[in-house]
Amino acid sequence: MIYPVTVFGDPVLRKKAEPVTKDFQDLKGFIQNMFETMYNSDGVGLAAPQVGQAVRLFILDTTTTEEDGLTGIKKTFINPEIIEKSGDEWVLNEGCLSLPEIREDVLRPETVKIKYLDEDLNPYEETYSGFTSRVIQHEYDHLEGIMFVDYLTPLKRRILKSKLTAITKGKVLPKYRIKIPGK
Ligand code: NI
To answer: Which among 139, 147, 89, 88 is positioned nearest to 114, based on CA atoms?
Structure first.
């Protein structure tokens, strides 16, 4: 099942997400639907608040996008905790399914060390670099209520203001279904 994607202006994207508990109904079905939703919209990552659930879970698939000899991953991160960010910051032009038609340069550190549970609730602690580290940091931000436009300078945000307002009103036409804030 493909979920509609929540977009900028939806309060669920600004909440600090709650941990996933054992009571979560059909966790595996939810994760499968998230993957379907992500592939349907050509995303490389998707966080639960982007499908309207303020829980600490995100997925990613960077298997076709990693370069520089790094291997991409296809994984589910449940109740993740970033333990350490390190390395030089580098710029990448980022996009987000919740910010249709916007792409902006964002600086993030190279490496991330993260603790999480997989879909069977097995614990892991791993370190990632490159594009996968970038996507992890972007998706993790969604669980903290942070979106990449928050990192832009006030000037850049002012330039984007009309675009952001258009998204809030649902006046965008991505090729995937969105949930218009407040509707
Ligand atoms: Ni995003």
So the answer is: 139
